[in-house]
Amino acid sequence: MVATLKRQFGSGITEASTYLGQNYMVVDRSLIPEILQVLRDQEQFDYCVDITAVHYLAREKPFDVIWILYSFPRNERIRVKTLISDGEALPSSVPIWPTTNWLEREVYDMFGIAFEGHPDLKRILLPEGWKGHPLRKDYGIIQQDNEWVRANLGIESGQ
Amino acid sequence: MLDYVTSYLRSNTTPGQAGNLLWAFIYIILIFLGLSVAVIAMNWLERKILAHMQVRLGPMRVGPHGLLQPIADAIKLLIKEDIMPAEADKSVFWIAPVLIVITAFTTFIVVPFGPTHAVTDMNIGVLFMLGVSSLSVLGVVMAGWASNSHYPLIGALRSSAQMVSYEIAMGLAVVAAVLMTSLHGIGLYGVAHGAVGDGTLSMIDIVKAQQDQHAWFIFKFFPLGLIAFFIFAVAMIAETNRAPFDLPEAESELTAGFHTEYSGFRWSLFFLAEYSAMIAVSAIAVTLWLGGWLRPFPTWLTGETWDLVFSLFPAATFLLLALIAIVGTLRMPKHPYFRVQTLGLAGFAAVLALIGILLLLPPVRDRIQDIYWFSLKVAGFMYLYIWYRGTFPRYRFDQLMRVG
Amino acid sequence: MSDPSTNISHLELGDRNETFLDSNELVINMGPQHPATHGVLRVILKLDGEKVLGTECVIGYLHRGVEKIAENRTYAMFNPYVDRMDYVAAVSNGLGYCEAVERLLNVQAPPRANYIRVILTELNRLASHMLWLGTHALDIGAITPLFYTFRDREEILKIFEKYCGARLTTHAFRIGGCLYETYDGFEKDVTNFLDFVTPKIDEYEELLTTNRIWVERTKNVGKISGKECIALGVTGPVLRASGVRWDVRKAQPYAAYSDFDFEIPIGQNGDTYDRYLVRMAEMRQSLHIIRQAVGKIPEGPIMAKVPKVIKPPVGEIYHSIEAPKGELGYFIVSDGSTQPYRLRVRPPSFVNLQALDMMVRGQLVADVVAVIGTLDIVLGEVDR
Fold first, then answer.
1. How many domains does chain B have?
2. pTM score, two decimals?
3. Residue B104 is assigned to a structural domain of this protein
4. Interface test with B, best of C42, C144, C206 (most B CBs within 10 A)
5. Which residue of C has its CA nearest to A78?
6. ipTM value of the model?
7. With contacts defined as CB-CB under 8 Å, which chain A residues touch C68?
8. How far are the Cα atoms of A8, B94, B149, B253, C26 from residue B259, in angstroms, in the given order?
9. Which end of chain B is more exposed for a tag (fewer CB within 10 A), N or C?
10. Is residue B317 part of a domain?
């Protein structure tokens, strides 16, 4: 399967291998909606298990966005990873898999990665007016948005 | 004066018909007291029976076996702060529970506990009861409206829609029973052997008709009597907003019912009205289908001995209850903490036993018969109400209306 | 807090000056505190009379930042946190996490540990389904099954307490195997429990399955087809009730499940009644698995050779198990240190809750409560 995809996308696929029995691919940002579409339509990865992100503070392109896909007919999982820089937006996968609606909202909430074309991109786990994206590495473990807490809860800090 | 009082005791009509105001008054007071005791007992019974159906014990702490629980609840409700929503319509808010309680209690004017034991016997008795209980719908809507909040209003509208639609079913079932009263003088299996009499709407005459026809209406024209009874039974549960038709007042549903905004004493009025209505419609069912105050087999098993046997039932019931209470006392834990409770329960057992012995005396025995059988049948219905609450899931509102 | 009308971006509120009596459409808030929403969940409903036109779920009331905490704890220290997510079925969370880290370390838990894990996880599945049944019946109005199921669930919690000391948040497993050996009388307790509970499950079925009111309340309510389930990422009994025969225990077996013979019940219509039947059948399958397992627990060590300080090599892993609610996945990124660099939990309830909107469109308000119950969500898992 990797061979077909490599033929199609050539150099866009930077890396494709297996670690501990799990297949993964690292692709270029530019390939993103097409390769996911191809994976769903041709390679039958019809179930998007998860979308998540990892933040590497000291890297040139700090964010890793990872799609974990599963194929029912093939009983196979694959991880598709792409690297993006801070402030860069990704096209939304909601037209491909409706399940990514809330998953992308959570990535946006926790990391600040915007998804273009998402029907309703707003914070999901944190309250509406919260500033900051907690799962980034430069957000402290006991840091909180004190302004929001003071304004909405009427307490000084709660910590 | 004394004559006025005692002459009634020998009459054979109800005080209302005899024009005897004093006794009518006494009966009204007795009904008030009786209803209050009944509602209190219902509260305790409901919690205990429901709990035992759910593999738990129910109230056990407040009095021995929770017997004082309803009193504690009543005191709590009475001393609660009376909250009125700021934007509520004050006069309507005040009147709604009062109206519902008035209608619930007024229906008891014609409920016959015996051939002469009713406040009065209108010759449109059944119609009167159904009509007055329909007025409670007005109270429900007023309660929902006065709260000035859309959840109670939606709950009230649902509740009223449900009550009104099930009244049709009730009415038709009642008509079936009333039609049967016109079969005057026909024997057990529908074989005519006498003149056909007039039908009647009077509660007392309906029971008398069942007596004459030697059959409780539930068994007439089997299974048609049973079907009419069943329809009425289901409709009456829906009419009183009890499970499984309690969507308008259920806790886990969105619209929390018309009595959401009421607290304390006003809420207890709704509660009182609900249980009184339950007893009232059960009374209708008992009168129309189950032979009112007639003892089982009034015409099959006749004769001195059978009369004696059946007349011992009231005393037997109370003595049995006293026995259960005594067994309960003996099983109480021996720890000093429970001393007061044990004494209380023993006292309760003693009172029950005393009443039982009192009921053995011949003059009391004869008079108490009718009241006893009537109350027993109504109590059976209350048990059924509680049983249904414990067993059935709730109907969704559109399904409920479709069933109606 | 925020005004509900500003939250509903895609629910197209009409002219703000209309009162609710003018238009037919009504926006109602099923607030965070509600007896039927299984936790703090806020559902904003847009209604046309009684019919639901659209919903929006507002979650995050129970967000505790578990994923951020994971980056500041060592692998072994994080183990107790995992139970607190799906607090109703804590043992499976622990199983998923321990297995994920074991894969990262490339160690295998010994067979005896695996059998113990399977027995406890299936007991945990039973407990979770019993709680689900009680609360779901309560939402629909049957107030009695709740007490029966909770009473029987007590017996399972007693076994957990005897095994690891805790009833609810068990912390039963360790990375590499189990810490505690089975106590004396464990097999006897479990067998007695199985004999005790089998007629009880029949009793629950008797109370509800053929009850006319139950059937009317649950048939054709919250229908979702298999294709929609897959597209929305819904897993667990919801997916199986829609006809897709998929269970992680069979598709990608873990922890000794391949040694046992069990079936995967599926439904046909994908409505609430089928989900109920599927979960009842799953309870029976769990009993079957436990019976097979308890008869032949192998001897041997219960802990694999895992270093004292757990430092997995650099790499990523995604491991998922079949939790009672659906596919529970752990995605762990390790940077070679003692603390995970990133730990992501893929919660089944979070993804299943997305399907709520689709499932209740066109149904009545009373059905919303029934559908939330049938999705079997636990807010601790949704919000983490």
1. 1
2. 0.83
3. yes
4. C144
5. C318
6. 0.90
7. 134-135, 139, 141
8. 68, 12, 11, 14, 21
9. N
10. no
